[in-house]
Write a structure and sequence with these properties.
Elements lengths: L2 H7 L7 H9 L3 E4 L4 E2 H17 L7 H11 L3 E8 L5 E8 L5 E8 L13
Antiparallel strand pairs: 1-3, 2-3, 3-4, 4-5
Helix pairs in contact: 1-2, 3-4
């Protein structure tokens, strides 16, 4: 898959698709992994992440929409990938069909900047 292919596949599936497309146009790194995982398994994992993030006061653009899309896709096998902005200020997770010819969902956005000693700071 080329950068242009992925840019064309990112339409308006979720609110995170536009910013992910803009990051790619600006030269973001991206990867699509080979493994296939049923969409509903992704939905369960990311529903828990969404609830955890909301409890901490964080939001992830497109996550709720992505979870809904993944739940509707059921057992459909999906590939996952990521997009990382050139300046590392934002990241996106993408879910593609099994042949990597269609983006099903996308979530992500600005990276949180953790202050030293905060619960979000890496150890």
């Amino acid at each position: 898959m080329t950068r242009d292919d992925l840019i064309a596949m990112l339409r308006e599936q979720t609110p995170a698709c536009g910013p992910a497309r803009a990051a790619l146009i600006a030269g973001a790194d991206f990867v699509v992994w080979d493994g296939l995982v049923p969409a509903n398994r992704h939905a369960g994992v990311f529903r828990r992440r969404m609830h955890h993030s909301l409890r901490r006061g964080h939001t992830i653009d497109g996550l709720a929409d992505s979870v809904d899309i993944l739940l509707r896709a059921g057992e459909e096998p999906l590939r996952t990938g990521s997009i990382d902005a050139v300046d590392r200020s934002s990241w996106f997770l993408i879910f593609l069909n099994s042949t990597a010819t269609e983006v099903m969902a996308c979530c992500g956005g600005r990276r949180l900047i953790a202050s030293p000693g905060s619960a979000d700071a890496p150890e």
